[in-house]
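Ticket #4471: structure output looks truncated?

Reporter: J.K.
Steps to reproduce: submitted the chain below (415 residues) through the standard prediction queue, then opened the result file.
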Amino acid sequence: MARETALAVGDGGPQAADEVRRPLRLSNLRRPALRLPTRGRRRPAVTLDPRRNSLNLIRLVLASAVLVAHTVPLSGRGEGPMWAGEGLGGWAVIGFFVLSGYLITGSRLRSDGGRYLINRVVRIFPGFLVSLVVVAFAFAPVAYLVERGSLEGFLTTPTTPLAHLFDNALLRMNDYSVAGTLASAPYPGVWNGSLWSLYFEFLCYIVVGVVAVVPVVRRRAWPIVTLFLLSVLVHATMPVVSVYLGGNGEFVLLMRLLPYFLGGAVLFVLKDRCPLRWSLAVPALVLALAAIAWQPAWGGQLAAPLFAYVLLWLGAVLPSPRAVVEHDVSFGVYVYAFPVSQLLVLSGGHTHGLLLFNVLVVAVTLVFATLSWLYVERPARDAVAAQGRRARATRVPEAVPAPAGSPENGVSVRV
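Returned output as attached by the reporter:
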């Protein structure tokens, strides 16, 4: 019994045997260490796995938001809700620019100018050009037949299908109409009002591509940060600046979107100093919204790095279906949702209520987006990637090895 008592009180071993031989007194009992309640440890920052993340899912959500926003005016129901001068579709496009700024800057800093330009062209132009062909020679003939009862004169009625392709082939949308179709639609004469942003996104690609030619941009973060702040300043003072450009509308729109793109770029060059934590993401979102409420004209542009932080944190923590991780159909959703909506309007799909109309648009758009990804976008991307691997395989290796401790892959940027 004494042994059982000693083992129950002590830790066992020789010390327990000594306690058995001594009388059991309160003074002999070992006092447990006093443990004060401590705060929970700070959760470690999450990392954005370049291959296993939810950015495809976020882009798909943004493209779907554009789709939903467009179904309101396309069905003749007004413009929809606005905040700080932007509707749901406008804020979704801003999200695209922010994410593109982060990803495209990383691509540019990891590659030479030629390879970077090829990758950017291949990512946008094949899907874009095929969408123009589909609209001009598949959607528009159906609309022409519905509205006029025959296809007579379709190929020669301005804007002709071939003229539609030629006018818009370089991303700058000069004419949204095809053969006078959609004249009876609530939003007449416009086949794809979403495509305007691709031209300005590509201009942002060029800006980053040219800036990265300067060696210091690859080594330090401050040039990108400075360029971002300068772009915000130009946008904020646009009423003064635009006078010297004759009120050029394209420049005004570019400087409205470029700060968002560069805001994503800022987060890329500072990514090693900006750990992704929920305790930072929530305040970042609050500060971004406060900046917009404080200065609706340019607060959003100034808060672009904060938006980038929130989106990247979501991309790191949100679960995503494997199919979405491996197949990026967001571009296809973006470029086909508008013409699909217009075609369904002509068939009367919008008369059954906005909810059902959105369901129909999503279902049909996903079919075209999936076909675009599987048979146009991904094959083009893979072909260029395979050519790049062959070129690297045949390249003569350098005789001098890299210094010890230098990164072999990726980009290391210092402030």
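Triage note (M.O.): checked the attachment and the full token line is present. The two ends are 70 Å apart (CA to CA).
Status: closed, working as intended.
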